[in-house]
Amino acid sequence: MGIEGAYVFRPAIHGDDRGTFLEWYRQDDLAGVAGHSLRLAQANCSISRKGTVRGVHFADVPPSQAKFITCVSGAVLDVVVDIRTGSPTFGRWHSVLLDDRTRKGVYVGEGLGHAFMALSEQAAVVYLCSEPYTPAREHGIHPLDPELGIAWPEGVEPLLSAKDAVAPTLAEAKDKGLLPRYDDCLAYYTHLRESVESSMSR
Q1: CA distance 155 to 45
Q2: Which of 81, 142, 150, 180 could cross-link to 111 by cystine, CB 3.0-4.6 Å?
């Protein structure tokens, strides 16, 4: 996706007169690009009306919370933000359309920020998470931060939760020391890869 630790997956969709079938998540495919698999600790499903923006959310590293996301009904604009201080792409974001036709998925690695906006009248998004939700480690950045400049679709009124509406800007979060450090993230990625290699050699 132009951001280290974030990937778009495009599944093969098999169809006939009965409907379609696809493998929306493959552990081996993810491990092949990320260097480690996703330890499944929690699975979420959110149903959102048009304009709903969820995020930009992230968690403390380690262990943070990696996510694998897809839209099973409707459409959303999914956004990954590099919030890792010291990263060569710090402050950059990348978006991808997730919908119930292309069935794309997005992997968001540990230490990255994630958000999406519902584009259809109703959108159902499911995501697999590497760690359970832990409020004390969870943080947010205001999704409409003008300096961050995420290009949300025009003509769709953003609908934010009370918590997201008062989230700090990226600059404020950095000043408060809330953001993950790039070096810490790299060290944690190495730890995850080495853990996989160690388990395979036993």
Answers
A1: 26
A2: 180
Order of strands across the sheet with 42-49?
Answer: 6-9, 105-108, 67-73, 122-129, 42-49
Q: Which CATH number does the domain housing residue 92 bear? A: 2.60.120.10
- Residue 177 resides in a domain: yes
Answer whether residue 161 is part of any domain.
yes
SS3 call for 68: strand
Give the predicted TM-score (pTM) of the model: 0.94
* Residue 1 belongs to a domain: no
C-alpha triplet 161, 113, 65: angle, nearest 5° = 95
Q: Calculate mean pLDDT across residues 92-117.
A: 98
Residue 76 has pLDDT above 70, yes or no: yes
pLDDT, tens digit, 9 for 90 and up, residues 111-145:
999 999 999 999 999 999 999 999 999 999 999 99
Residue 24 within a domain: yes
Q: Domain range spanning residue 108?
A: 6-197
What does 101-137 look like in DSSP terms, one character per residue?
TT--EEEE-TT-EEEEEE-SSEEEEEEEESS---GGG
Residues with catalytic function: 57, 127
| 89 to 68, 81, 169, 202: CA distances (angstroms) | 21, 9, 17, 37
Count up the domains in the chain and report the number.
1
